[in-house]
Amino acid sequence: MQTRSPRVVGRNPEIDQLLQMLATARAGHGGAVFLVGEPGIGKSRLAALATARALDDGMAALRGRVGALGTSVAFRPFAEALLALIRRGEMPDPNSLGPYRQVLGRLIPEWDDGTAHEATASPVVLGEAVLRLLSLVGRGRGCLLVLEDLHDADPETMAVVEYLLDNLEDQPITLVATMRPDHCPATELARIAAQRGSANLLELQPLQPAEVVELAAACLEVPVDGLPQELGDRLWQDSAGIPFIVEELLQEASRSGQLLARPDGSLQVVDGLRTNVPAAVVRSITSRTDQLGSESRDILVLAAVIGHRFPLSVVRKATGTDERLLLATLRAGVAAQLVGPDEPVPDWYAFCHPLTADALLAGLTPTERAELARRCADAIEELHPGLPGEWSPMVAELAETGGDRSRAGQLFAQTGRRSFEEGSISSAVKLLERANTLLATDADLERRAEVLGLLLVALRTAGQFDDLVLHAAAVDDMADRNLDHCKVAKLHVHLAFAEHTAGRQAAAETHLAVARSLLGNGADPADTAPVDILAANLELDRTNPGRLRTATELATRAAAAAEQADLPEVACQAYQMLGMLARERDLDESIAYFQRARQVAEEHGMALQRVLAHVYEGGSICLATGSVVEVERARQQALRIGAIALVYEVNCVLALQAVLRGEYSLAATTLDEGFQVTRRLRLNGIATFFLAYKGILAGHRGLRNAMEQTFDEATSLARENTPYELPVTYGLGRAFCALLEENRELAESDQAQALAYDAQNPTAFHTSGKSGLALLLGVLAGRNSWPHFELINATAAAGMRWNRQFVQMAHAVLLGRDGQVAAANAKMTEAMESASLYPMARHLGMRLVAEPAHADGWGDPIGWLRQAEEYFHGANIQPVSSACRSLLRQLGATVSQRRTGSDQVPADLRRLGITTREYEVCRLLVDRIGNKSIASRLHISPRTVEKHVASLMTKTQQPDREALSSFARTVLQD
Fold first, then answer.
1. pLDDT tens digit string along 287-315?
2. Contact predicate 639/98, CB 8 Å
3. Which of 29, 42, 534, 940 is 20 to 30 A away from residue 346, measured at CA?
4. CA 893 to CA 880: how far, in whole Å?
5. Other CB atoms within 10 A of residue 146 CB
6. Contact indicator for 643, 611 with CB cutoff of 8 Å
7. What angle do CA 803, 809, 813 make, to 5 degrees?
8. Is 835 left (phi over 0), alpha (psi -120 to 50) or beta?
9. Residue 387 φ then ψ, to 5°
10. What is the mean pLDDT of residues 830-853?
11. Alpha-carbon distance 529 to 564, whole Å?
């Protein structure tokens, strides 16, 4: 007698919504739905129905399920879904994914060259990779992704799901997720997503009495009115409307002979139905397993101890069962609707419902269950030495069930370490916390210390700092129990790094002091190297003029100790820090440090550290020569290993170089795209730089309003103390914008502000003007003479190509001022060569140097002014082009009238009859400056300015100059 329904009953509204979402996905617009309900309510049935309809309509359909173990492997449902694509031959060309192919090596082993786990730092980046792959799979046909049992999902899987929810709208993807209504991160995410409209939440309710009757009739293949009323009433009463229990009750009634089919096809209830739920389900499952025989029942009970899913090889090993009996048990279990093959994974079977496994376990005593768990754990360790992948957390769970806390703790620690190395930080924290708890009373103090150290590193990386005081107390307890003092010091270093990351400098300093006190003098380099690199990091965060020097000394000592103690990761960190710090004094030395870091990384197979060092080395070469070739090569390596965050850091650097080179369209595109993607990936630190450089781009185009607005956005995004560092926004952004406005006074003020910020806390940015533009402006103003020039010229930063052009221009001005005409001309030629990469800076330099060159009788001031006027006119930088024309007239040169100047006057002002020159005056009135300042910027007389102001007041009908300034501020926008 059939006891399973061939169709879904009582879910028509839910089915309609699922089908509508599939149709929308085929049209290119995605969405998500959460199916929430208790076990047996029908979540998986609805998901299976959606899958069948998607396949019927030609869509791609993928399914992944969270493992049934309490400790799940990160990203398991996504790995299961994507691997099925490969098995079915439906995987698109992986090269179309660009750098995201390597990121997906986390999930698809065939795509991993050994660097995927090292390169991928964020589940959000993996979410972007999954999104792009699903979009390719669903292009032109739509894609359905089903994720089951999210209530047991790991934090990284939930982070990817959350990312998908936020970005499905314009993708051909439907996401269907099932979960129980337990309080967990999955249900919380479903609730929040439903509130903000990024997903639908369908909470499946028990069936109504009539629907239970309909379901039972469908199961038994009889008309609704052919179902005995007594049977319908009893099913409703005992099932509480749960479809799975309805089917189980029917199965039990049929098996026990309480439900018979008459010859005419009608049904007869014999002796009534007297069962209770959940005892009815337990009884049904138990009675069916009893019919299989004691050996087969024992096999299934042991399988249930492993979990709702179980590998046949382990069951065979743990039970000692021969192949014939095992296969016979499986065939009988399938026939009895107890188990079925877990299709996505060969050699694995699963119970038809979680309640099936729970019912089998209900008959075990704790002692019996512990013994079976130990047998299963031993079998897995024998079959899978080293416990790769899912085996390690599986054995850890079984060991804990078996009462072996030490074994379980060590295995959870092993799994946590692996998760951390793979970038699954949140999962690593949970696993290591379980290990730390299990080993809290372990007699092996060194083992406890190692696990606590791993946990502290994971907590710091995850940004979880609430329990540091408790962990510090645990360190003190181990110290009191005579843990080796070097290991205690190492734990204090971990605590200090965590406190430092949390922004608690005083606490970090305290732990550092304890660590140094414990180690004393003459400590082993393996112990001192981490202490020194910690101290160097703490030093860089101090507001101290000497911080860079002290950090250099500490990093130098850390590098030497790390080399001696063979600590490659510490050595790489030290050399990279030294390379960054050396840029201030010697670029060749900086490059050598980065090359050493690359060498160490290559020798020890540390791909990410190798690429990082290459990026930094390319940055030093770029600073020295202006060439971005090596930076581009490093970027390609970052792409190859899938280091997405690093790729965008490099893109940010390249965008700034595009700004300096005057490649404004390329810079704008790179900055806009980079900001959008890094914000989406929640890489807010990098996103802040994209915004800051976008502000500098606006400044280099003379767009003050846009510049200030963008800097404000960057400050808001950073939230605290603008990590992109203030000197560069003033010295490289605002100062240049002021010069393009012909506001030398404001440029001097902005550059002075940049120098002041740098003096308070020396910056690692070398393009903020201290060794370049500030020197030139000081020389032009007469403040800086030979002593100051020699001081700046002796620094490594003065030799950096961007700075070098301004240093050489300042040198030429000083030489000309001393009457050394030939030397001044030669030096200006060198400056023009250095500036050849930077057209805006080159022509601005010509405009600035022309005046002293004419005054001192050297160079080609008229030729420079003509070139500058041509450039800035074409660039629509009217204040500078106008100044160049005025200076040319003052020098007696003929100047062709620019007939297109009126085009720069806004239409509303042109209708008032305002001329080009009046418009220039009007723009400067916004700053409420006097006639003399305006005359100085426009290179006209104050009397002429006075006439233009009077004319403007008449044409705009403003009563006085103050009103005219307010009018100008209101109507003039970038």
1. 778 888 888 999 999 999 998 889 999 99
2. yes
3. 42
4. 17
5. 24
6. yes
7. 145
8. alpha
9. 50, 65
10. 97
11. 9
What is the strand order of the sheet 309-311 is part of?
309-311, 348-351, 339-341
List Cβ<8 Å contacts ≥24 apart for 959-962: 961/925, 962/928
Peptide bond between residue 278 and the one before it cis (omega within 30 degrees of 0): yes
Q: Is 482 helix (H, G, I), strand (E, B) or coil?
A: coil
How many angstroms separate the CA atoms of 147 and 43, rounded? 11
Amino acid at 526: A
Q: Which burial class, exposed, middle or buried, applies to 134 when counting CB atoms under 10 A from its CB (0-12, 13-18, 19+)?
A: buried
For residue 260, give the DSSP letter.
E
* Burial call 207-233: b when 16+ CB within 10 Å, e when fewer: beeebbbbbbbbbbebeeeebbeebbe
Residues 6+ apart with CB under 8 A from 606: 118, 568, 569, 572, 600
The candidate with the shortest Cα–Cα distance to 135, out of 17, 22, 55, 30, is 30
> What is the overall mean pLDDT for the chain?
88
Integer Cα distance of 267 and 559 in angstroms: 85
Task: Tell me: pLDDT of 28 over 90.
Answer: yes
- Cite the DSSP H helix spans in 644-799: 644-660, 664-680, 684-700, 704-718, 726-728, 735-740, 744-760, 773-781, 786-793
The token pair that represents 89 in the structure block: 């031959």
Name the DSSP letter for residue 730: I
Would you say residue 973 has pLDDT above 60? no
DSSP-assigned beta bridge partners for residue 176: 33, 146
d(C-alpha 597, C-alpha 562), whole Å: 12
pTM assigned to the model: 0.68
d(CA 117, CA 105): 8
3-state secondary structure of 268: strand
Q: How many residues does the chain have?
A: 974
Tell me how crowded residue 461 is: count the other CB atoms within 10 A of its CB: 18
Q: How far apart are CA 828 and CA 805, in angstroms?
A: 9
Long-range Cβ pairs for the range 378-386 (8 Å, 24+): 378/318, 379/314, 379/317, 379/318, 380/314, 382/317, 383/313, 383/314, 383/317
Percentage with pLDDT > 70 across the chain = 94
Q: What is the pLDDT of residues 250-293, one digit of tens each?
A: 887 777 777 777 777 777 777 655 554 456 677 767 777 888 88
State the Cα–Cα distance between residues 685 and 678, nearest whole angstrom. 9
pLDDT tens digit string along 705-723? 999 999 999 888 876 434 4
> Between these two residues, 245 and 160, which has the higher pLDDT value?
160
Collapse the DSSP code of 349 into the 3-class scheme (helix H, G, I; strand E, B; otherwise coil) and give the result: strand
The two three-digit tokens of residue 425, written as one number: 């930080």
- String of DSSP letters for 127-140: HHHHHHHHHHHTTT
Please tell me the distance from the alpha carbon of residue 817 to that of residue 780, in angstroms, as a whole number: 10
Helix (H) or strand (E) holding 340: strand 339-341
250 neighbors 259 (Cβ within 8 angstroms) = yes
Please give the backbone phi and psi of residue 231, each rounded to the nearest 5 degrees, phi first. Answer: -65, -45
Percent helix, percent strand, percent coil in the chain, to nearest 5: 70, 5, 25
Q: Using CA atoms, how far apart are residues 958 and 477, in angstroms rounded to an integer?
A: 79
Q: Provide DSSP, 23-46.
A: HHHHTT--EEEEEE--TTSSHHHH
pLDDT of residue 3: 59
Left (φ > 0), alpha (ψ -120 to 50) or beta: where does 690 sit? alpha
Instruction: Taking residues 832-852, report their average pLDDT.
Output: 97
* Gap between the Cα atoms of 867 and 473, Å rounded: 71
